């Protein structure tokens, strides 16, 4: 599978594009359909959260509903949203350090089929390397040095390079900055301007937001700007990095939202079992049932039912209560 | 007293005994986290557990084991929840004494493959990938490999080096630029191993209870060196097994 034929965005291009954007505080609230329309065919989409935590599930669902094509997905650890994009024909390239759901479910059958069959490309970096690539992007520099990946074959299969340190003479691994076209990030709360707060694990989201050209936020709750001003120490993404704000309660479901709702492992296990048995056909059936079928986020959540959502909410309260 | 136990239980207990008190361990979910929690509950109450999703000082709740390193169950009573990148930068800075690793393929020098069987361009089996394994192998001080002892796992040559161990057993790590750390122990359900100071290759140091040299040889896909005086490891005690089973009562990982 050849690499997507597109020159990488340099740090100079990324800065110029960003400088050209308006920065006036303005109301960025919009419908989820309008927000997802900021994603274009061929875009590199960086996905916030990690594995089955704080995944922007509703935003990803909407991107799939709009039938985007040839997007590149990157994420710290890729859960089955990667499988769904492959099965939907929306992506043929995944950039991550790990793909799967978790140890109990084994290897991803769909990623195996697509990658082993030459229909998709899996660009593997170490977990830190992915983080430093976003961080370099967030810093506006072309690369960052690290001691990781030295001695690994990942050095030769990725775009990483080595150099001799000009100060100490030691060998370093250099990872190139990543400037995604779009970041999709789900947060606990944001105001209408896009000032965003995350509870619990920050994962890589602040860096992803600062590295991306366009940032689409969904939030469990839209709060008044005054509330953000009272708790400014908790703001991890400032408004000037944000292009769209979508109010999306249960926006990560069935994945977990720290302190708000627990991961719905029953649901995920059911999906994994069906895919384990029937492969791509099962993923496409899941797309029909949960992505293309329900016309609105509410219709999607109704499939799980209020009682189940309430149960997951109680579980999270109990898990994060001290 | 002879207790009965599963290979996973034996692995977790053996790994826990390798952890000294008052150190910091970078643990993955499953057996490494169980081993770390068991060590804290027995001989190492001052051991700090760190997981890569971004949790420092977590306390594993019996019956509430995390399946991923970035979920709420991995943050129970943690002292800090930094970003994933920051967690690995603490490793690069040198704070983490131990790193646990497993692997689909392991070679005689403790290098590990969790990426592909076959070639990267057209893999026969696309494995899940490094995750934080390559970072742990490069950045932690003492890397310990914990895995089932199977012939298909212990192979002379890897298809791909995801996580560097001792590289070539000579000065390979240093030449690659890895100034710190290295693999110090490999624990399996059959044996404890390290590396021969002369050849740099994997070496049998001790046998698990009930395991014999011939069995270890059969289950290793390369010529294994043997230490001059091969010891016998002690069986898990009743107390260790009780604590361990209490941590994972539904046997998600045991």
Description:
The complex is a heterodimer of chains A (322) and B (254). Chain A is built from 13 helices and twelve strands. Chain A is of the alpha/beta class and 322 residues long. Chain A has two domains: 12-142 and 178-320, 3-Layer(aba) Sandwich (Glutaconate Coenzyme A-transferase), CATH 3.40.1080.10; 146-176, no CATH class. In chain A, strands 1, 2, 3, 4, 8, 9, 10, 11 and 12 form a nine-stranded mixed beta sheet that branches. In chain A, a hairpin with a 5-residue loop joins strand 8 (182-190) and strand 9 (196-197). The longest helix of chain A is centred in the C-terminal third of the chain and has 15 residues, at 306-320. Chain A starts with 10 loop residues before the first helix and ends with a helix. Chain B has helices at 7-17, 31-41, 84-93, 133-139, 172-176, 213-218, 238-247; strands at residues 24-26, 48-51, 55-56, 98-101, 105-106, 112-113, 116-118, 123-126, 142-146, 182-187, 191-195, 202-207, 225-232. In chain B, helix 3 runs parallel beside helix 4 (133-139). In chain B, strand 5 and strand 6 form a beta hairpin. The radius of gyration of chain B is 17 Å and the shape is globular. The longest helix of chain B is centred in the first third of the chain and has 11 residues, at 7-17. Chains A and B meet through helix 5, helix 6, strand 7 and helix 13 of A and helix 3, strand 8, helix 4 and helix 5 of B.
């Amino acid at each position: 599978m050849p690499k997507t034929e597109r020159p990488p965005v340099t740090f100079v291009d990324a800065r110029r594009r960003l400088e050209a954007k308006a920065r006036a505080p303005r109301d960025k609230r919009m419908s989820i359909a309008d927000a997802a329309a900021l994603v274009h065919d061929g875009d590199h989409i960086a996905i916030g959260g990690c594995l089955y935590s704080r995944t922007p599930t509703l935003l990803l669902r909407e991107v799939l509903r709009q039938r985007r094509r040839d997007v590149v997905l990157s994420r710290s650890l890729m859960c089955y949203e990667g499988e769904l994009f492959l099965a939907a024909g929306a992506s043929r390239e995944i950039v991550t350090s790990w793909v799967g759901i978790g140890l109990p479910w084994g290897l991803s059958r769909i990623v195996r089929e697509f990658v082993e069959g030459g229909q998709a490309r899996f660009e593997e970096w170490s977990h830190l390397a992915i983080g430093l690539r976003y961080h370099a992007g967030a810093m506006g520099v072309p690369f960052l040095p690290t001691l990781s990946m030295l001695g690994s074959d990942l050095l030769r299969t990725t775009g990483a390079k080595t150099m001799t340190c000009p100060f100490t003479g030691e060998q370093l691994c250099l990872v190139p900055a990543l400037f995604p076209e779009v970041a999709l990030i789900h947060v606990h709360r944001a105001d209408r301007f896009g000032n965003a707060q995350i509870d619990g694990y920050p994962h890589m989201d602040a860096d992803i937001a600062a590295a991306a050209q366009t940032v689409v936020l969904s939030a469990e709750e839209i709060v008044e700007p005054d509330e953000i001003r009272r708790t400014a120490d908790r703001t991890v993404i400032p408004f000037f990095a944000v292009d769209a704000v979508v109010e999306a309660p249960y926006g990560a479901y069935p994945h977990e939202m720290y302190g708000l709702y627990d991961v719905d492992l029953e649901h995920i296990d059911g999906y994994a079992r069906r895919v384990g048995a029937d492969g791509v056909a099962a993923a496409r059936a899941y797309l029909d049932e949960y992505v293309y079928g329900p016309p609105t986020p509410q219709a999607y959540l109704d499939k799980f039912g209020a009682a189940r959502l309430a149960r997951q909410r109680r579980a999270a309260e109990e898990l994060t209560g001290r | 007293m002879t207790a009965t136990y599963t290979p996973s239980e034996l692995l977790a207990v053996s790994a826990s005994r390798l952890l000294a008190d008052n150190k910091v361990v970078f643990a993955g979910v499953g057996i490494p986290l169980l081993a770390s929690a068991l060590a804290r509950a027995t001989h190492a109450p001052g051991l700090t557990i760190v997981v890569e999703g971004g949790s420092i000082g977590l306390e594993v709740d019996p019956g509430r084991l995390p399946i991923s390193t970035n979920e709420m169950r991995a943050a129970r009573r943690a002292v800090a929840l930094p970003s994933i990148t920051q967690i690995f930068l603490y490793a690069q800075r040198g704070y983490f004494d131990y790193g646990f690793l497993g692997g689909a393929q392991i070679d005689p020098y403790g290098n590990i493959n969790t990426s592909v069987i076959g070639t990267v361009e057209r893999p026969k089996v696309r494995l899940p990938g490094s995750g934080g394994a390559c970072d742990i192998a490069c950045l932690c001080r003492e890397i310990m490999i914990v895995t089932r002892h199977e012939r298909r796992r212990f192979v002379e040559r890897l298809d791909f080096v995801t996580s560097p161990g001792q590289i070539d057993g000579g000065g390979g790590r240093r030449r690659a630029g890895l100034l710190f750390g290295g693999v110090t122990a490999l624990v399996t359900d059959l044996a404890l191993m390290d590396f021969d100071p002369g050849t740099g290759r994997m070496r049998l140091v001790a046998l698990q209870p009930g395991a014999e040299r011939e069995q270890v040889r059969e289950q290793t896909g390369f010529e294994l060196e043997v230490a001059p005086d091969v010891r016998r490891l002690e069986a898990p005690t009743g107390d260790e097994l009780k604590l361990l089973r209490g941590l994972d009562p539904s046997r998600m990982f045991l």
